[in-house]
Amino acid sequence: MTTTTYALIPGAGGDSGWYWQLVVAELRRRGHEALAVELPAADDSAGLEEYADAVAAGVGDRAHLVLVAQSMAGFTAPLVCDRLKDRVDLIVLVNAMIPAPGETAGDWWANTGQPEARRALDLAEGRPADADFDPLVTFFHDLPQPLVDQALAREPRQSDTPFGDPFPLPAWPDVPTRVVVGRDDRLFPEAFQRRVARDRLGIDADVLPGGHLVALSNPVGLAELLVRYRTH
Fold first, then answer.
1. Is the per-residue pLDDT at 3 higher than 80?
2. 79-113 pLDDT per residue, tens
3. Mean per-residue pLDDT, 51-61
4. Helix segments in the chain, DSSP class H
5. What is the pLDDT of residue 78?
6. What topology does CATH give the domain 5-231?
């Protein structure tokens, strides 16, 4: 029987071992191999190419890979495919930034209309549209309190370097791709993500209950969906 390895890539400033801990446990409970890959997020000399190198080194010589990319990792996962060639069976984008050729992660926000989409959602749900960023409101609103306490006690650093790197591929890799959207994501609203996935990849997204950090708020639902992608 072919063994699938789920390589889980964090978003900006993500501590992969902490962020993916519950999904790793759920996947392993179901008999699958799961690796939370660490990125050199605090290293100002590391850009997108170095991030992709780190993922490739983390998976080693494993084959039949599923790359699961959270948020900014949407810029990294396609570059990993370029390195590992035919060893990647599937890309799963989770509340992810989907780049266009030549686009930087810094420009992606305005190019996709994310600020307007987020503001419209805030207004629709009764939040101040122009309030200062508050992680409790945007990221941690649907997490259990123990995870919120852990998150607030952590101080991960994210370098600005990869946000200035143009996405180097001329097109999305020829690898099957699925898009997962958190229904309750306040940073990348559901309707916004669904539009970007259709416009940029021609993909209809799957929606799960949960916010931007859905791997922490709904790890069972996400793990079950990841396994279903490999069995259907």
1. no
2. 999 899 899 999 999 999 999 999 999 999 999 99
3. 96
4. 16-19, 21-29, 48-59, 77-84, 105-112, 114-124, 135-138, 145-153, 190-201, 214-217, 219-231
5. 98
6. Rossmann fold (3.40.50)
pLDDT value of residue 133? 87
Residue of 194, 185, 192 whose CA lies nearest to 139: 185
In the chain, the amino acid numbered 205 is A
Amino acid at site 28: R
Asked if residue 51 lies in contact with residue 16, where contact means CB atoms within 8 angstroms, the answer is no
Residues 178 and 85: their CA atoms lie apart, in Å, by 18
Domain ranges in the chain are: 5-231
Residue 135 main-chain phi, psi, to 5 deg: -60, -30
Check pLDDT > 60 for residue 7. Answer: yes
DSSP 61: T
pLDDT of residue 15: 82
Q: How far apart are CA 163 and CA 3, in angstroms?
A: 34
Determine the pLDDT at residue 156. 81
Q: Is the pLDDT of residue 1 over 60?
A: no
Task: Give the integer Cα–Cα distance in Å for 212 and 142.
Answer: 9
Q: How far, in Å, CA of 121 to CA of 71, rounded?
A: 18
Q: What is the DSSP string of 119-184?
A: HHHHHHTT--TTPPP-HHHHTSTTS-HHHHHHHHH------SGGGGSPP--SS--SS-EEEEEETT
